[in-house]
Amino acid sequence: MTSVYDTLRRPIITEKSNFQSGKLNQYVFEVDKKATKMQVKEAVETLFNVNVENINIINVPAKRSRRARSRRVLIRRSSFKKAIITLKLGQSIDVFEGVQ
User: How many beta carbons lie within 10 A of that of residue 87, not counting itself?
Assistant: First the structure.
């Protein structure tokens, strides 16, 4: 059994996630690969003291890219699981408040 601190790994802060947190009341987190929707919901509600309305989970596949100088060197980014969490109206998470 994993704890709530092991379930949520880190917040994902991109242009799209900033738009979602500002306009749609949705927040994006990288979660453990074995985490389920109910575990993610429990972790967010206990850590941030908010009410979760909806959760979407996406498995992001691994990607390959090339280095700029030598095109022969391949870099592989690992795959991860991300969760898009929709909160009830009027609630927010303080982790994302400083980012505009």
Answer: 21
Specify the CATH number for the domain of residue 77. 3.30.70.330
User: Looking at the predicted structure, is the pLDDT value of residue 36 above 60?
Assistant: yes
pTM: 0.83
Contacts of 70 (CB under 8 A, 6+ apart): none
| C-alpha radius of gyration, the chain, whole number | 16
Q: Is 75 a member of any domain?
A: yes
Q: 42 pLDDT band (50/70/90 cuts)?
A: very high
How many other C-beta atoms lie within 10 A of the C-beta of residue 33?
A: 10
**Where in the sequence is the domain holding 25, given as residue range(s)?**
4-90
Domain-embedded: residue 95: no
Residue pair 33/81 in contact by the 8 Å Cβ criterion: yes
Record the tokens describing residue 38, joined without a space. Answer: 């109910």
